[in-house]
Amino acid sequence: MARYVYDFTEGGRDMAALLGGKGSNLAEMTRLGLPVPPGFTLTTEACRAFLDTGGEPPGMWEEISEHLTAVESAAGRLLGQPDDPLLLSVRSGARFSMPGMMETILDIGLNDESVLGLAKVSGSKRFAWDSYRRLVQMFGRTVMGVDGDLFERAIAAHKAQRGTRDDHDLDAAELAVLTEEFKAIIRRETGEDFPQDPAEQLRRAVLAVFESWNGERARLYRRREHIPDDLGTAVNVQRMVFGNLGPDSGSGVAFTRDPATGRPGLYGDYLPDAQGEDVVSGIRNTVPLTELERLDPLSYRRLLDHMGTLERHYRDLCDIEFTIERGTLWMLQTRVGKRTAEAAFVLAAALADEGVVTPDEGLARVSGEGLAQLMFPRFDTSATGDPLARGVPASPGAAVGAVVFDSAEAVRRAAAGEKVVLVRQETTPDDLPGMIAAQAVLTSRGGKTSHAAVVARGMGKVCVCGAEELAVDTGRRRFTTRDGTVVEEGTVLSVDGTAGAVYPGSVPLVDSAVMRFLEAGAGDHATTGVVDAVARALTRADSVRQLEVRANADTPEDAARARRFGAQGIGLCRTEHMFLGERRRLVEEMVLAGTDVQRDRALAALLPLQREDFTGILEAMDGLPVTIRLLDPPLHEFLPDRTELAVRIAAAEARGERPDAHDVELLTAVNRMHEENPMLGLRGVRLGLVVPGLVAMQVRAIGEAVAQRLLAGGAPRAEIMVPLVGDVRELRIVRAEVQRVLAEVSETSGVPVTCPVGTMIELPRAALTAGRIAGEAEFFSFGTNDLTQTTWGFSRDDVEAEFFSAYLDKGVFPVSPFETLDRDGVGRLVRLAVAEGRAARPDLKIGVCGEHGGDPDSVHFFHTAGLDYVSCSPFRVPVARLEAGRAAL
Ligand code: ADP
Ligand code: MG
Ligand code: MG
After folding, report:
1. Quick check: CB of 86 below 6 Å from ligand 1?
2. C-alpha separations of 432 from 345, 458, 860 in Å
3. Domain PEP-utilising enzyme C-terminal, which positions (predicted)?
4. In what order do the strands lie in the sheet containing 328-336?
5. Sequence-ordered alpha helix ranges (H) in 751-876
6. Cα-to-centroid distance, 783 and ligand 1 (Å)
7. CA distance 338 to 257
């Protein structure tokens, strides 16, 4: 038969799955000989069995009774014994810490009789009645489901009567009256009496804690923290010790080091004459832990001692909860403490220096997400009031600027040296110039994977999206907040992308030292504290990682920055941005060309411009590989918007004028090229097969750039990448064209120009036929954005807003598959393509480009899948380096 109960002396820290975090650590402290009030733990299995069947698992109660008897005989008294009651706490404690999310019930065992016994043996009536009223209150609320406010109101009424704001000023008689009132509330609300039988109290408290696993708060918390719903919680039943027995008693919380900075020192709060819940609830003001040294030097010294023991034993920062009962110190909880990103890095370095952990263990304890946070400037919000609005924290960091409502205005003001915040309902690719010009992007619609969010993250730009309380009126160039505040264009705002908040005016910024260090390239600095710690973590990561890290970069500036951030090449150089701006006219000519001659003329005009782009990038990445992707998006993306054209023509006609002939011609072309599903339409390699001369022009530009760099004494390493291939024959045709053009370039330039030709794997069919495709490809690069879209059969742009949030809410996605690679589906295609591609061509180089390349979880997957490199936006390069290192540990 299953075993459901473990004594604290039987468990240990490695049993967290079964005993929960709190239970396993209580057991560990017990084994270390620290003063832990005795008790036992009901397993998470018991909880799951209870939640599954809705009934108490058979045999559980007998087990509890046995363990209870042991606790009773050790204490020399019985649970609720009338003249000298043993009291118990019943504490929740799941596998992963969910602070305050589930229930804990203290002082089980008190009733109308034993409260009198407790008063006598403790010598304090006030204490006894305070404990009893706490029990009735907690039990009433958590076990019997009474609205907690009813109790709080009753307390408030008594305090008002007393003319005090402190619970502490209520005396024994008042607390006795209050307890009776609480019991009456319970009776009124539930039709049932507060149970007097201690055994019944215990049993119902245990089941209530089990049930609190499925409480609304707990469920929400798990969703946000990505904790699975089916783990269940353990329950710890423990002898009570009392911090509310007078001035020589008290409760506190402490950290073995500063959890904000990681620096050594003792941090914590203490509250004399109080039970632990009072410390965090903020009912009374705590004193700094150092005060304890004065109040009770012996307990203070013991506490320091135990904290030292714990930190050495856990080899990490620990936080603890403790209670002092009449000069005796009791340890009630410990765990490896939560910390800020800064503290994580500083601590990892310090513990490695102290020889407490190895450098690899130090690396394991920091994270890419933490590094990303440290790279952004931060607001000092200590003196700011409430935010104007809140939204989704889509891209972290802090930015200040004047509000503008469209891309053109953003560009205009930025060019004049002004800092701006671009505010839109949502953004589209047309807003790109404005997004680039702005310090931050703020939208009233869309989630973490909306256009604004994805693009902003890619650019390392601050973004708050989905601030639904904002009514954005682009026409009148203003927005209105929920409380009716009107914000006009030009008003200065502060946007906090880390917290997802927007403040009026200019909140002061704290610069990121880490970013300054990374931007400067490999360390020539005297570094201190967190910067030094980051540098060391990155160095370690670089020395152990197997994945190379490249960057996605389309301009020489981005390439240069990526290189400073440690990129080992460019994994994706998109050529479509090079078709925008003034060059649109040439693209239009190419599209509209009625004859080969006209088209060739347009292409010929584009050629030198493209060549220049490539030369600059190859120069910035000299000696390192640059993977250039041939044009990917449908051509009509470069033409004016269909509706806009139609409106322009109609307006001209309405004025009785002849519409512009060029507009009419364009509209015809746009109509002809219109696609219902452009994502699945004429794009990628299909363009190369259908639009004569396009591939040749791009390849010639690349080849000539390579030749030029070679002649200039450089070491260009261009690689040509074909997008959206689904069948090897597509690639074969394009590849032949590439070889032909490169041969021509070699011939005319007089320098031999060769470039590896590879393909993106971004269609399921490509992955499924990777073995054959590898016959024509020297490298693969997984385009995981498209591969995710085509595997799931949804387009990111179309489904993101409503449908994604519903899917996240309902738990279909634990996290958006565009943020973190879907290992089960898309990941399986990746593994298959890697295996079959390498089988066909053992030296096949395989990488990934797209958002996932900079996502920590996905980087770990790509490591295990055996890829050669990941490529991500320049700002994510340090993050990817760190995570690739951690993945290799
Ligand atoms: P949480 O998980 O929300 O921190 P805990 O189980 O730690 O809940 O309980 C909350 C508080 O109750 C603790 O901080 C501690 O002060 C108090 N408490 C719990 N068990 C005992 C006990 N056996 N004796 C005295 N106080 C206790
Ligand atoms: Mg606790
Ligand atoms: Mg793609």
Report:
1. no
2. 35, 12, 31
3. 536-885
4. 287-288, 264-272, 250-257, 318-325, 328-336
5. 764-768, 770-774, 784-792, 796-799, 805-809, 826-840, 856-864
6. 50
7. 11
Q: Print the SS3 string covering 520-543.
A: CCCCCCCCCHHHHHHHHHHHHHHH
* In the chain, where the domains are located: 5-239, 250-336, 377-511, 553-579+590-632+685-887
Q: How far is CA 45 from the centre of its chain?
A: 30
The minimum-distance atom of ligand 1 relative to the CA of 277 is 11
Candidate list 67, 849, 852, 860, residue with the active-site label: 849
Q: What is the pLDDT of residue 700?
A: 98
Catalytic residue among 451, 636, 860, 863: 451
The preferred substitution site among 19, 332, 335 for testing ligand 1, maximizing ligand atoms within 8 Å of CB, is: 332
Distance CA 193, CA 180 (A): 11
Ligand nearest to the CA of residue 106, numbered in listed order: 1
Q: Which atom of ligand 1 is closest in space to residue 97's alpha carbon?
A: 2
pLDDT tens digits, one per residue of 785-842: 999 999 999 988 777 667 887 887 787 887 889 989 999 999 999 999 999 999 999 9
Q: Are 93 and 244 in contact (CB under 8 A)?
A: no
Q: Residues of the chain whose pLDDT is less than 50?
A: 524
Tell which atom from ligand 1 comes closest to the C-alpha of 238.
23
Homologous superfamily of domain range 377-511: Phosphohistidine domain (3.50.30.10)
Query: Which ipTM was obtained for this model?
Result: 0.94
Distances from the Cα of 445 to the Cα of 455, 464, 489, 501, 688, angstroms: 15, 10, 19, 14, 36
Residue 197, number of CB atoms within 10 A of its CB: 11
Residue type, 714: G
Q: Is 465 a catalytic residue?
A: no
Q: Is the CB of 753 under 6 A from ligand 1?
A: no
Q: Whose alpha carbon is nearest atom 6 of ligand 1?
A: 91
Tell me if the pTM is above 0.90. Answer: no
Active site residue 863: no
Domain spanning 5-239: CATH superfamily: ATP-grasp fold, A domain (3.30.1490.20)
**Looking at ligand 1, which residue's alpha carbon is closest to its atom 19?**
89
10 Å CB burial of residue 642 (0-12, 13-18, 19+) is middle
CA–CA separation, 684 vs 630, rounded Å?
Answer: 8
Q: Check if 332 has its Cβ closer than 6 Å to any atom of ligand 1.
A: yes
| Cross-sheet strand order for the sheet of 501-504 | 389-390, 501-504, 492-496, 398-404, 420-424, 440-443, 462-465, 392-395
Residue whose token pair is 């370690």: 540
- Architecture of the CATH domain 250-336: 2-Layer Sandwich (3.30)
Q: Is 323 in the pocket of ligand 1 (CB under 6 A)?
A: yes
Nearest atom in ligand 1 to 253's CA: 14
Q: Whole-angstrom Cα distance, residue 151 to residue 167?
A: 13
